[in-house]
Structure formats: structure tokens, C-alpha cells
Amino acid sequence: MIWLFWVSTCLLSLAVLTRALELEGLFEFGEEAGDLQLVPGSDSTAELPLNGSLFLFADTFDKVYINTNGFVSVVEPPAEEQYLGKMPASFKMIAALLGDLDDSDGRGKVHFRWDSSPEVRNRTAEHVRRAFPRDDPEEPVGVLIVTWENMAARGTPGRGDGLDTKRNTFQLVVASMELSSCAILLYPRDRLQFLSTPVGGESKLLEAGFNEGLVAGWWWSEKQGTYFRTTTDEETSIRELTEKTNSGQNGVWVYEIGSSPIFVAITPGMVTTLPEEDYRPITAEYAEPETEEPDYPEYPESETPTYTEPERADPRYPEPSEPRYPVVEPLQYPEPAQPVPPRSRSQQPQIVVVDEDENLDVNVFAYNSETCALNRHKCSAFADCRDYSNGYCCHCRPGFYGNGKDCVAEGKPQRMNGKVNGRVFVGNSPSPVELSNNDLHSYVVANDGRAYVAISNIPDSLGPSLQPLSSLGGVIGWAFALEQPGYQNGFSLIGGMFSRQAEVIFQPGNERLSIKQQFTGIDEHDHLVVSTELEGRVPAVPLGSSVQISPYKEIYQYDTNLITSSSNRDYTVTSPHGGGGAQTRSYQWRQTISFQSCPHAEAATAATQQLSVDQIFVMFDADNHLIRYAMSNKIGSAHSSLPEQNPCFTGRHGCDINAVCRPGDGLRFTCQCATGFNGDGRYCHDVDECRETPQVCGPNAVCSNQPGTFRCECLSGFVFASEGRTCIEETRPVDHCQRGSHDCDAADRALCSYTGGSAFVCSCLPGFVGDGRVCQDVDECQQDRCHHDAFCSNTQGSYNCQCRPGFHGDGFQCRPREKTPCERHRESAQAATSSSGIFSFFRPRPAVGQYVPQCDRHGAYEPTQCHASIGQCWCVDASGQEVPNTRTGPGSTPLCIDQAVTPAPVGPTPRPDVHPVAPGTHLLFAQSGKIEHVPLDGYDIKKEEAKPLLHIPDRVVIAVAYDCVEKMVYWTDITGPAISRASLSGGDIIPVITTELQSPEGIAIDHVARLLFWTDSMRDTVEVSKLDGSQRRVLFDTDLINPRPIVTNPAYGRLYWADWNRDGPKIEMSNMDGTDRTVLVKDDLGLPNGLTFDLEDQQLCWADAGTRKVECMDPHRRLRRQIVEGIQYPFALVSFGRKLYYTDWRREAVVAVDRHSEKETEEFLPQRRSRLYGITTTPTQCPQGTSCVKNGLKHPKVNGGIELILTCTCEERFVEPSVLLLWQFG
């Protein structure tokens, strides 16, 4: 009765098991639960005696120590400086979520207790049973419960801006049993709100796991024991603590952490769920009566935890008398692939794409009489080709099995993917149910023969009636069945290319169903590919009914290129709520499998083999329209004999899911990691062939590591040769200049010219000399290019000429400058008092008491004039006339205003075809409550000179922009919310827009038309106003979800913005008056956070935090290219010359990217580490226009009232705008 109650409970809660864990799903905690509370602090410890023993690794303990920093230890821990950031530690601990945590602010608390109540013990036992459905676990005698509630990261209490809530809540439950202990780790949804803590001045990721500490080594020495990490060095592994599971419910993780000395490894739970992105929607775990298996997982995924065992001795295995063999299963699917391109790939990229509506009418491959010399590439990468007298055959190498055409590693799990089509009548219905490209997914654990199958999008009218057809996908169970001694499963005999036709006759109604399946081999992802067609009628099974299929045996008859089998199968249908009782029905099953074997090699296959299928579980999930099957499969003798007891043949071993079980004498066995994995067999980790053998793919190829194997892909411009292994140059013409794959020097020094075919020539730009591949600057100053009365200064690719003082001109022509009135006045004053005679050839000198005017370097009157002889000073106007009432006496100087207009400087004049980087450019970036500026030296960031520009401690600044005309900085803040501005040279903050804002996150300026544009991600608008905030209008308020970055192209009157809507990200453009709105980019976008426009090259570039790429596009020709990939989390982006600069949230840095070399070149980390937001540049002069708007260009009205008229004149490639902005109403 106990198991019946347990099954009923699981069935009633099927829809709950795979949901994310809510806070209410934790074990009860707090004062009302009888908890003790840890003393608040940042490194507090409390001792808790246990009313029982706790096993951890091979030892037992009767007390534990609870610590603030997210762990429980069995000895009193040292100071946190000795283990934080320095794991593995020297002492035994269970790290629920280790970091520098703090609960001293009154909100955080650490609760703990030892609980022996039946309710808690029963609940704990249920978690353990779900995690280990194959075992018969002991009942807990006591339970340790520790809850860390609302813990903060020490030293980072939060900014108070609402963007970062920094509270983590999680729970550790340790079940103590007579012979073992299990740890249950619970991570509620949305309760892990920070992933790292500051440790020693650096940001360190939180980590979870089980640490053995120091253990005895040789000669009384000590060594570091096992550190079993359940997280990795990637943030993703911490986030997935709430999103995945090994116990049947997301956010709940179960591990056996210690037992008797027979077996001391950490054993993860076996029941995992699939992430929603793989199989939508997520469904509940399997449940069935105890006579079968009480709980079966959805398709396991292979996110194997990190397992570090330095100097570990040979593993110890359980004695035969032990009640179970622990199985270590990883947590998500492996994604293996062949290390060489599959047969069907001939061009780069080497990926096979099958359209969903494509008819997969694929014939099995036929051997011919050719030799290995020409056909070796038709064999698997893991097979050898062998010549025979009349042909060749492929044979899998040791460690692999299959037919030679397809080979997979022994012991490795296998997946099958495909589509299901057809028409099926249900019961007496006159209309069929149509199936069209329904997804079929299957997974088999090869080393124990357990297979799982799921078919999606099954309607309620058909789903319940498909439950009896477990063999619909169970063919993968036969293909990868657990082999008994001397017998082979289907894949070992015929590989993965065959056709299957089956006929099902149901009794007593005589309904018939035809099943046709075409298996097309292993694809590049190491998945077996199948297409399925159903045609016929099945008996009706009411919705909500459950189906149980009895274990059965099926005889397979083997002949040349043909396999047949038949069986009778019984199944029981139980009506929902027990109203209709249970009915036992049956059907006859006949199938034929056709394949093409190699006729040249002798086959050693038994004429008959028996497939034994038991532990069958079927379920139709009506909520998610999924039909699921699970079964255990063994292939062996057709004659009755005593069943094999060796764990390798029963599947009851403790080998890793990526390991093969090797039987020994009696019940002895060993575990050996599958090819492509290393380890002791109990735990296997992937071998990175690309790192260990960098040249494994040969020249002109890139190696990509995969679980258990690797893939080779040819570089751009290369394809695989006919033999499928060597990358050769592509024969089709390639414009390397356009693609950027040329070897010319950088674009600011050389020009790449396409000459047809795949040819190109490199030539140095004017001002440089070389062969085009290496160009060096010419020092024109050595060539006397400037006038002899001018200074010459060399620059990269150019030079400047500037006339000397006293001369004026463009530097190429200089002539003496005419004297100003002040200079003539000064000379006349000096000449009038000059002496004659023997001293007359000396410089004229004024007489004592004579006033001589003072002139500045431009020849204008100094605003303050002084007469030293009489000790008086006064102010003068531009003509030198004294300003009344300004004269002062001795020892005093008036404060005079310079009323003279300084003449425009002449020169230095750059070469007309070169654009040198203007000096004095700065980067401005926002960092929460301040805007910082850092100067650029050319393109290099002068990190040591970074300084704050503006402090706004109670604001969160998001976007920044710069007006190059008035030298004003504009920014948005989302706490006001407001848009404001200030002068770059200092002064008060000037509000621009303060009303009707919610979350302004993007801002842009048109310095020509003197307009301000911004986006509001909560109002979902794109808006415009004049720079002072007047004449505000909404340009767009439809088809926007999360608009953020926005930029302008004043030369063409265009506006660009990005919307990071997760369901449909896009980049759009329009004219500045709102007309011609167009989606510019919508494919291959994730989170386009940053956007910038290079006016000189007319390139639109964006940084995407979803695809982790920086890309650029010519919006006129729609030419798109990738700049860099693999970046972390960019937020904002700005272009300056050949460089792109972006802010990164995770790195908390400004990162520089060279667009020409397509590489990151520099990183700047501000002194105060926190998230960086918007970024812009402050050029010393406005950008040069590449074209001019035609005189009288008139934009049509939009939104009932904006009309924009622009006129331009073009001189020396500068746009000098005269702008008339008219707002019309009505």
C-alpha cells in the first residue's frame, strides 16, 4: 500500500515536478520551525551537535559547523581568508553556495536545526527516491536543515538604483541514514540574484560542491583529497542551479555524499529534465508502480560536474552482496560529432541542413567492387578500410562498434532525432488525424540499455491511443540494446542506415497500423536520423487513461540484408479516476528491417537473437501534447538459459554514463571511459583533442571540440577535398578585398584593389611607401614641402605646414603679415624717443616716462594697459581707447574684459585626401551616478589620465551623447527620469526633458539640424525635439517593445535604432522626419544593446549581448560583416576612426576593437568597479560630411506636425549647415 500511495502522489504532482522551485517549496524554516539562528556577520560560525551520525566521503561525524559564507563543515573552519577564492580547502565541507556573504544588515539570516520529525524525514526520503529511482534507499533517521535567507555579497550592499537586487536565498538538507548520507540542495527561482562576490579585490564566482580536504598520503604525508564541484568557472553553471536538476524538479539537486568505506565517491541523482529550449514545453517526470521503476527521467543532459581527484588511487567497487550499484549520470545530453565532415558535406560551412518539409527518401548505401584507395572516405572516421578480392569493407576500430560506415564509441550514450508524418484514424472516427513533421527525439544509455522516446505536438484526439505503441520509437532500444555475452545489438550489426517496415494488428477490433521508418545514419552532431510515416487505424483510448505494457520478448531472425521479427504484446488500459476499471488488450507485431551489408567480409552473426524488453513506461502528457516511452532492452540468446548476473550484463553497475562496463570473472567488472573521455570509469571527463593536439585537423582548418570527439571545419576560402579530410582552397572566385581576407596593410595605410577571379593587388596610400602589404609613413618634412618661412610637422600619411610668427598664409605660401594698429602705435612710440649719434644704431627705446602700448601675439591691444613710470593701469577697447573710469593707482590692476576678436588661426593645413586623428579626443562613459572621461592618444586609451567629468550620486546615467558644435554633453537618467546637459568645460546642469519620461535609455544628436532624439523603453517610443527640449514630438510609438540604442546619420538625414525584444530583436531605420521606416536587420540577432554610426565610412555597427558578437553593415548596400565574436555582455558602443569602443557589464570595462584587424586591442578597467553604461567620444571638431543634403530638401510632414527643411553649402568637405526647423500643427 505504501508504494500505491507514493505512485498516486507522484501522478497527482506530475505537472509540478519539473517546474522551477518556488520559495514556498523549501523545507520549512524560521523560528516557527524550531530553527536556531546564526549570529549576524560576515564570517560567523556556529557548532551544532547531531543526534546521529553524518557520513561525508569515508568518515562519520557527530557534529557540524554552520558558516555565514554558504557552507557546512565537519571541523571548525579557519578564517575566511584561508579558503575564499582558494578552493579546494584543507578541511571537509559541503558548499551549498560558497562566497563572501554577509547578513549583518538585518535582512539576511542563517537558520539551522536537526530535525527527526516523520514529516521531514518522509519528505527527505521522497527527494532521494526521485533522484535514485533504481535503488531502494534507506529511510532517514535524522535531517540537518540549513537555510541561508536574503544573504548579501559582502562589501556590495547595492547602489539603490533598482537595477541590481543583491539577495540570495538557498537551502541545504542533509539526510542521515544508517549506512549513508545524502545532501539535497535547493535553489528557488529568482532567488539567486548575484553570482559573484568580491574576494581580495577581485570578483570571484560563487561555487558549490563537496570538498574532502587533506587526506593521508604516502609516508605520513598529506595530500589534497577530492573536490567534487557541482558548478564550474562559468556563470551559466550557477544560473542553472535554479533552472536544471538531477532529481526531477528544477532547482533541486540530490547527491549521495558518503557511505561505508566500500564506496566513497560522490554520486549525483539520476533524474534530469530537459531545458525548455530543447523540448518545449517541459513536462513532468515519469512515474510507474514499484513493480517496474517508480520514477524515470526525462532525457538526461550531460552537464557533467567538475570532479577533481588529485593522486587518487584505483576506485573501489561494491561487493556483490550490496543492494545496489550506484550509477553516476551526468546532467545533460552530450553533443558529440564526428571529427571529420560527414559524407554529405562538400562546401563550407560543413553542416547538413534538412528542411522540415523535405521528403527523406534516402536509400541505404550499397557497397561496390571499388577499392579502399578511392573509397576510404566512405568509411567512418573511426573505421579502417580493408580490401577484399572483389571489393572493400569498412570495419570499426577497437573501442568503437557499428557496421564500419557508422561507428560510435563503446559505452557512449546515443541520441536519435527525426520527423513523424502520416494519417491515423482513431477508433470508429471517419476522419484521420494528420501528423506533419512532428519532432521525434530519443535517447539511450548504451551501457545499461535504457531507452527514452518522445514525440511532440500530438493532439488529444490521438495521443492517448498511441500509448500502446512503445516500439514506435523503441527500435533505438534494439539498435543499442545491452549486449549479452556472444550477441550483438542492431547497430553493431547493421549500423545506422536501414529501413524498417512494421504492421500492427490490434485485438479484438482488428485495427491495423502500418509503420515505415527510414534511418539515414549518424549526422554531424552524432545523432541517428530517422523519418517515420504512420498510416492506418488504432483502437481508441480515452483521454486521461493510463496504459501499462507487460514485459515481452521478441525473436529476431537474421539473414543477408534482411531481419524479421514478430511478437504478441499485452497491455492494460486503466480509465481515468478508475470509473471504467482496467481492460487488458493485445496486438500482434510484425516487422522487417532491410539493410545493405558488406558482401565481401564473412559475417559471424547468430541466426536468431532474442530482444528482452521490460520496465516499460508510457505516458501521454495532454498539457504539453507529448507522448513519451521508456524501456530497458537486452539482446541475447533465443534459448532459455540462466540470466547473466554480472553487472555489465544487468546494467546494475556504477560506471559513468560515458563509460563502457568490462565484465570480469563472476561478478567482477571494471569501468573504462569511452573513447574521447578520460577518467577512472566511475567518472569520465571529456578530452579536448583540439587543445591537446592542435594540428589534428591539419592546415587550413579549425578544430571544434565536442563531448567525446571533435569536428574539423575548413577556414573561410577552403573546402574539404573529395576524400573528406583535407581542406583545399576554394576554386570559386573570392573578392578578398570585400571579404577582408586579404593580406594588405591596414586600411589607413594601404588600398586593396580587386582584379578579378580571386586576385587582388595591394598598394600604399599617398603619404606611405612600400609594397602594399607593409607600408611605412613618408616624412614629407624631409622633402621641403612647406614654405621656407613655415614650420613643418610630420603626421601618419600626411604632414602640416604652419607659417612662422610674423607671417601668414597656408604654410605652403607665407608672406609677411601687415602690422596692426597696436604694433604701429608701439613702433611710433619707440621711434619718437630714439636717440641719435653713436648709439642710434641700437634698438629704439622710449624716453623715461614715455607710454608704450602692449600688444598680444596677434598684434591686438592687450585689454589691460599699464604705464610703469607713473604706476597706473587701465582698460582699453579693441581700438586701444581707454575705457572711462577704469584707471587704477599703484599696486592695483583692473579686471578688464577682452573685447578684441581673436583672428581665426591659419594652418596647419592637412593634406586634402587624408584625415588625421584630431588631438584632444576623449571617451565619455557613464558609470551609475557619474560620467567619466579618459583621453585618447591616437586610438590608445590613456588609462592613467581617466577622471570624473560629472558626479550625480543620486542618479543612474544610462546613455550619453556629445554635441560637437556647442561642446555640450547630453545624458539620460532613469531615476529622474530626465534628459539633461552640461558644458564640457564645466558649469551647471541644465534640464532638457523632465516630463513624460519613464525609462529613457538611448540618446542621439544631429549636430547639423540641431535636433535631439531619444528612445523610451517603457513608453515604447522614439521621440525628437530641439536641443533645448522645445517642440517635442513622438516619431514612433507602434511596433516597439524594448527600444534602446539610437544613432543619427546627419549627412543623409537618417535615423537608426535597435529594439532588443527577446522574441523578435531588430534594427530599424527611417528618415529623421519619421518617413520611410524600414527594418534593416532582423536575422541572427539576440540582444542588440549597443549601436553606433561611422560617418566617415558610412558603417552602422552594433554590439549584441545575445549572440556575443560585434558586427557592422553598410546600410546603403546592406553588406554585413562580423568584426569580433565571443565577447561577454556589451551594453553601449561608439565608433572612432578604425576603432570601436564598447562598455561591457560583465567585465566592467571599456574594450577597444580594431575594425580592420577584427581583434580586441585594449581593455580599460575604471578604478571603481561597477557596471558601465553609455559611451561616446568628444572630437575636437565636428565630423566631416561625406555628402551634402541638397538645397531645399524638404521632408514631408509626419504625425500631424513636423516639417524639416535643410540647406547646406559645401566648402573643403565640411558641411556648414543652415537649418530652418518648422513645426506645424493641425
From TrEMBL:
Signal peptide region: 1-20
- InterPro entries in UniProt: 6-blade_b-propeller_TolB-like, cEGF, Cueball_EGF_LRP_Nidogen, EGF, EGF-like_Ca-bd_dom, EGF-type_Asp/Asn_hydroxyl_site, EGF_Ca-bd_CS, G2_nidogen/fibulin_G2F
In this chain the Thyroglobulin type-1 domain maps to 819-896
Q: Where is the Nidogen G2 beta-barrel domain positioned along the sequence? A: 412-645
- Please state where this protein is localized: Secreted, Extracellular space, Extracellular matrix, Basement membrane
Query: In what ranges is there compositional bias, type Acidic residues?
Result: 287-301
Entry keyword annotation includes Disulfide bond: yes
GO-annotated biological processes: canonical Wnt signaling pathway; cell-matrix adhesion; epithelial cell differentiation
Disulfide linkage? C866-C873
Q: A Pfam family in this protein?
A: Thyroglobulin_1
Output the CDD domains linked to this UniProt entry: EGF, EGF_CA, nidG2, TY
Region Disordered: which residues? 285-348
Q: What is this protein called?
A: Nidogen 1
